Amino acid sequence: MRKRSALNGWRIAEASRILAIACLLLCLSGKSISQISVQTKSVPPAPMGWNSWNSFANIVDSAIVQQQAKAMAANGMKDAGYQYVVVDEGWWLGARDGAGNIVVNPKQWPAIMPGQKDGDMANIAGYIHSLGLKAGIYTDAGRDGCSMYPDSGESYMHTGSEGHYEQDFLQFSKWGFDYVKVDWCGGAKEKRSGAVQYAEVTRAIQRAEKMTGRPLFFSICEWGSQNPWFWAPGVGGIESTVWRTGGDIIPPVVESLHDPEHEKRVITLQNVLDSFDTGMHPEAQHTDYYNDLDMMVMGMRGMTDSMDRIHMGLWAIASAPLMVGSDLTQLSPDTLSLLTNKEALAIHNDPYGLQPIKVAEPAVAIEVWAKPMAAAGRRAVAVLNRTDVLAQVNIDWGKLGLDGIPRSLRDVWNGRTVAAEPAFSVPAHDLVLLSVEGEDKKPAEYPASESSIVGIRATSGPTFAQLEYVNRSGRVAVVRVTSQSGFSTALALPPTTGSDTGTVGLILPRGIADLRVEPQRAVIQRLLVYSWSSS
Ligand code: GLA
């Protein structure tokens, strides 16, 4: 039987779905297949791109977005894989026409090309597409959006989509947007259940996708308030592959406002470390489903070169969305070269997309984080020094499930091969990122042909595992992981086709765990559990 990753299985299933939609549209319109462009919904590594909020807050407009998109297309970021240009809060101030359609300010979103109308968001989406990039937009799951608590200027109510889900998500898709971030200011104000509300949003997005034939990537932003990592991947019909894990990394820093409040704002290392620490839920992240540590602040006021290295290293090893919130026209060559570092991006884009496990803390605030990778014997290691003195750190390779010392070790920042011994020097407030190749210790194998495996042992720490399954239901199946200590989370198993087996990389919680998959949807075939340990 040919093995294929869940990623490919999902792509193919989505391609068939989109093809079916295209065929339907074709019959209705009487067009030939060559006249219709069929788009496949790809599920790439955690999304990479730019978001307007951190540097422009609610003063965002067409000119700003055009400049940023142009910069991304020209400065090497597009070539490195950054693709989304996302317009965050402030693009719409809550006005609707008599039929409930969103009405935007025509001066803020004017025509860009001859023949276009002022006040049509399709203009900016089209502009972004003309540069070979993808367009993102923003709304709120509640009735009122975050504009009721403005960063600057007046407060606006009714900037959320509740009561208009079907209409708004269809509108975003018709305008040509490829990505939507759905915030939680209104949901929180109304004390809603995130799981219920975001499932409704999913249905509206799926309906819009069917009607336009255009994929709309869905990013949940409820700040971790209701532990979305436990339900966002597939529970109750939700289909989001990215969920925010915490509050905002910083309040926005809008240089052009020249406002005393903004002038005071300086990013600290603690801002970056707090977002990382809050976002570590490695047992919930799994292939194609990502904890979102928030938009990046690299190169912004207060960030130094070593803070940039820590930021890039942690977001890359966590396979977190790389949505850069900086002003892309102002990035220094050093910041740009970190953002586009090929070896760091290869760690980020690893097909299993897992978060790292903290395998050691040899001294207070000196940490060794190791990420299991899809290829046999591959690991990424981040040695983080949070202290203000130089640290010498030895790595116990056995804790990473490796047999002996690695045969190859690359220092990612310098692109050089280094020796596995002796200790690594990590300057104060800095991070060394390593790409490692060695020999896996033999994994324990748990065979199964049913819907569960019980008594899985990960007693020496959270542990890397590979799950093989078949899911011919055509829909995402959910596998529940419970441990004897009371931990419980849900992982999504995308559909497989034909005789193919899907493979998902995951991290088991410490202790003894059971896996149970929704019966009738998927069958577990095998679980390989690697021998990791942490202090
Ligand atoms: C919330 C989100 C931010 C941003 C702002 C806009 O705070 O977490 O990412 O979208 O809203 O107001």
Could you give a short account of the major beta sheet? 8 strands, parallel
Overall mean pLDDT stands at 91
User: What is the straight-line distance between the termini?
Assistant: 39 Å
What structural category arises from helix and sheet content? Answer: alpha/beta
- Compounds present? alpha-D-galactopyranose
**Which residues form runs of ≥5 with pLDDT under 50?**
1-43
What does this structure look like?
The protein is an alpha/beta fold and 535 residues long. 24% of the residues lie in helices and 24% in strands. The protein is built from 13 helices and 24 strands. It has helices spanning 6-29, 53-56, 62-74, 77-80, 122-130, 165-175, 185-189, 194-212, 260-263, 269-278, 305-317, 333-339, 342-348, and strands at 48-51, 84-86, 134-140, 179-183, 217-220, 242-244, 290-292, 322-324, 357-363, 366-372, 378-385, 391-393, 408-411, 416-417, 424-426, 430-437, 444-447, 452-458, 463-470, 477-483, 488-493, 502-508, 511-517, 523-529. The strands form 5 sheets. Strands 7-6-5-4-3-2-1-8 form an 8-stranded parallel beta sheet. Helix 6 (165-175) crosses helix 8 (194-212) and helix 11 (305-317) packs parallel to helix 13 (342-348). The model is unreliable at 1-43 (pLDDT under 50). The structure holds alpha-D-galactopyranose. Alpha-D-galactopyranose (GLA) binds next to loops.
